[in-house]
Amino acid sequence: MLIGIVGKPNAGKSTFFAAATLAPAKTAPYPFTTIKPNRGVAYVRIKCVCREFGVIDNPKNSKCIDGIRYVPVELLDVAGLVPGAWQGRGLGNKFLDDLRQADALIHVVDISGSTDFEGKSVEPGSHDPLEDVKFLENEIDMWFSQILKRNWDRIIRTVDVGKSGDIADILTQKFSGLSIERKHIVASMRILELSSKPSSWNEDDILKFASTLRKVSKPIIIAANKMDLPKAENNYNRLIKELKNYIIVPCFSEGELALRRAAEKELIRYLPGESEFEIINDKLLTEKQKAALKFIKEYLNKWGSTGIQETLNRTVFDALKAISVFPVEDPNRLTDHYGRILPDVFLVREGTTTREFAYKIHSELGDTFIHAVDVRTKQKLGEDHILKDRDVVKIIAAKGIKL
Ligand SMILES: Nc1nc2c(ncn2[C@@H]2O[C@H](COP(=O)(O)OP(=O)(O)OP(=O)(O)O)[C@@H](O)[C@H]2O)c(=O)[nH]1
Ligand SMILES: [Mg+2]
User: Fold this and answer.
1) Does 102 have pLDDT greater than 70?
2) What is the pLDDT, as a whole number, of residue 30?
3) 25 CA to middle of ligand 2, Å?
4) For residue 323, what are the β-bridge partners?
5) d(Cα 269, Cα 266) in Å, to the nearest integer?
6) How remote is the CA of residue 247 from the centroid of ligand 2, in Å?
């Protein structure tokens, strides 16, 4: 799963990225600090099944701390987006190109309103973050609609000739580089009740289709960042009222980054997503660090967490509707071929079947799939069986494939 971090310059995208991944990323209080995208691994938190089965696990593709599994997802931090990016303004097209493979987008918004559209510092509260939400969506909609408009005459002709499939096939081809599937195209056409003859679509239909396709294929969740600054709370309350159907998470990226770095240096004990931390040794801290930690503690008391972990989890589980599935080779000992207990957990989309899951583990396992076994009930599951969240399964295949 690849999640893109987007937003205007100076909103705190790289700070969010660095806090979530602990990968080095340059951050600075001016626009266009990031030019080349940063790619790194972050983790979503889920309740592991180890306690339920009463085992001590040996995770391979993830981590387990105190019965909580941290499952990897990839993050991509890209350059800031300015109005007109779809026409090439700022670092426009490059930014959009970098996002092609993303499954979902986290929109980092400066909720304190202390940066303008171009990311320049302004009086806190003087810029309206609601405008940022609208402009970002519009940029991506325009980018999608350009892909269509540029090719529209050819799309009409290809559909008329009828050799390359129907309109959904042809549009799927046009968007194939953007991690967009046929089902997204079909769903968008159905929502808008669009005709299967592109010659009858007008300009407005194309725009609406682009916008719906964007919503269906690349869900956006809003990280209301810089919540620690003045004016942020007012703006946040206004946004959740105005944007009722959006997922909006209050975030303090700078605070999370400070906590993660302090935990790495063993100055504090802190697990991402927790509502508290513990100072290991007061004497190792400078006065400045103590003051910063005091400020962060007050923030956590008020907001419950820094919001970074919640943003990641809600992107994966609410926006992308993923579920977690644990494959094992030995259904009694819950081990893989090497005797590791509950080694892996995979994030897959809701609706994934056992055979599709087998393909996700290994293409050969998918090709030679016979059936699966539900480890809890020992029931046999056919290839079309739809998996549930936290399922533990054994895949039986024709050839012995080592998990
Ligand atoms: N007060 C506060 N400042 C923050 C927070 N997150 C980021 N910042 C500051 O905002 C400024 C911009 O942060 P970056 O992470 O470089 O922003 P960006 O969106 O990656 O910017 P570009 O790469 O230029 O597009 C830096 O000075 C950060 O320290 C936050 O949660 N609170
Ligand atoms: Mg940046």
Assistant:
1) yes
2) 83
3) 7
4) 348
5) 7
6) 22
pLDDT tens, position by position, 131-142? 999 999 998 999
Q: For the packed helices 129-161 and 203-217, what is the interaxial angle rounded to 10 degrees?
A: 110
Write down the mean pLDDT value for the chain.
Answer: 93
Q: Is the pLDDT of residue 14 over 90?
A: yes
Domain 139-217 falls under CATH 1.10.8.470: yes
Name the residue with the closest Cα to ligand 1, atom 16.
Answer: 27
Contacts of 367 (CB under 8 A, 6+ apart): none
Of 51, 73, 78, nearest to 64 by C-alpha is: 51
Q: What is the DSSP letter of 317?
A: I
Length of the chain: 403
Question: Domain 321-397 falls in which CATH fold?
Answer: Ubiquitin-like (UB roll) (3.10.20)
Task: Tokens 């983790």: give the residue.
Answer: 43
Closest CA to 392 of 338, 318, 323, 339: 323
- pTM of the predicted model as reported, rounded to 2 decimal places: 0.93
The Å distance, Cα 10 to ligand 2 centre, comes to 7
Lowest average pLDDT, out of 22-31, 75-84, 197-206, 229-238, goes to: 22-31
